[in-house]
DNA sequence: AATCCGAACAACCGCCACTTA
DNA sequence: GTAAGTGGCGGTTGTTCGGAT
């Protein structure tokens, strides 16, 4: 991992919330060159942040394919199920939730699911808190829906209303994308960043590309152990979604292969990234060939590494 | 209308595992 | 074999907002 391109850490790193300009710089750089060596990235990208901060920002917020907003009942069930078996292994849990980050899962657990589980435990040891159902997540769920919807509202306001939901358009639960596809800004978090609407990875990788990359919707889940399979059995659609993932390799800035991964979906147009790539001179068709197909690899997703 | 409080979320910090020279 | 450096993970904190009083 030692990388000659990595400069010594600079002092005076900026901290705190990321500005839209910083986001833009980071995204531009990674989309052009891949992240490569994180510690060297800030200097190259013209950011006054440390590599860790950049990495976190990319992984938790900027990375294409991320899903923001409401957890679907299936996702909740998956989180609770996996947490029961894995404990606080948020990254492991997140691997079973396409488009969710460990940080998001962790936050969601700490702020919501944990309380529900505890409440359920108080009601009766043998009766764990019932997961939200597709017919309605209950009053607490409703309150959360109105409270949390998140940045996708900004996306809906700034871009196509269906851009967010296209992350899991196939066989996805309706509740999952309730905020992504549904209530516009009014129902979503008002203080969400007004820029950089959330764009699902599916929006910028055509399904045909995914098929070419080898992942097909009907592919099997290699190496998925029984426990994991059982744990996430309730959210089978997630597996099928993951089956559409592809993975390619490109040369990273440090001379190593940087694995970039795809997450396929319908042929929904990539309205933001199309615009973005146009801006930086990269054709959308170039993405598939240059490997700008970042999300989770199959192996990562299934915890095979 | 102003203030307080809890919730939600983004980001930081510290530790650990892994890789490479 | 060892040390240095990086990346990743989990815990925790800080900030912002909405709702209640």
Automatic annotation (TrEMBL):
Residues 141-151 have a biased composition (Basic and acidic residues). This is Uncharacterized protein. The lineage of its organism: Eukaryota, Viridiplantae, Streptophyta, Embryophyta, Tracheophyta. Residues 10-62, 63-117 form the HTH myb-type domain. It comes from the Eukaryota. The keyword Repeat applies. Residues 119-184 are annotated as: Disordered. Keywords: Activator, DNA-binding, Nucleus, Repeat, Transcription, Transcription regulation. It comes from Panicum virgatum. Coiled coil: none annotated. Residues 10-62, 63-113 form the Myb-like domain. Signal peptide: none annotated.
């Amino acid at each position: 991992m030692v990388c000659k391109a990595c400069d010594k850490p600079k002092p005076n790193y900026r901290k705190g919330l990321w500005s839209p300009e910083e986001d833009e710089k980071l995204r531009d750089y990674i989309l052009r060159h891949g992240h490569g060596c994180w510690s060297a990235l800030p200097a190259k990208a013209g950011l006054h942040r440390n590599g860790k901060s950049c990495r976190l920002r990319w992984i938790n917020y900027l990375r294409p394919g991320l899903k923001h907003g409401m957890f679907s009942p299936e996702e909740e069930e998956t989180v609770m199920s996996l947490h029961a078996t894995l404990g606080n292994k948020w990254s492991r849990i997140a691997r079973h939730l396409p488009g969710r980050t460990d940080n998001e899962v962790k936050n969601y657990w700490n702020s919501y699911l944990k309380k529900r589980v505890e409440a359920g435990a108080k009601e009766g040891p043998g009766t764990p808190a019932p997961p939200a159902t597709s017919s309605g997540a209950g009053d607490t769920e409703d309150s959360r829906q109105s409270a949390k919807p998140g940045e996708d509202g900004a996306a809906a306001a700034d871009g196509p209303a269906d851009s967010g939901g296209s992350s899991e358009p196939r066989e996805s639960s309706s509740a999952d994308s309730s905020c992504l596809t549904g209530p516009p800004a009014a129902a979503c978090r008002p203080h969400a960043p007004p820029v950089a609407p959330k764009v699902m990875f599916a929006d910028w990788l055509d399904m045909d590309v995914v098929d070419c990359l080898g992942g097909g919707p009907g592919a099997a889940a290699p190496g998925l152990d029984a426990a994991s399979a059982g744990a996430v059995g309730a959210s089978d659609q997630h597996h099928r979604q993951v089956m559409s993932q592809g993975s390619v390799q490109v040369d990273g800035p440090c001379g190593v292969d940087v694995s970039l991964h795809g997450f396929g979906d319908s042929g929904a147009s990539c309205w933001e990234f199309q615009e973005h790539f146009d801006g930086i001179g990269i054709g959308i068709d170039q993405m598939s060939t240059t490997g700008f197909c970042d999300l989770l690899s199959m192996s990562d997703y299934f915890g095979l590494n």
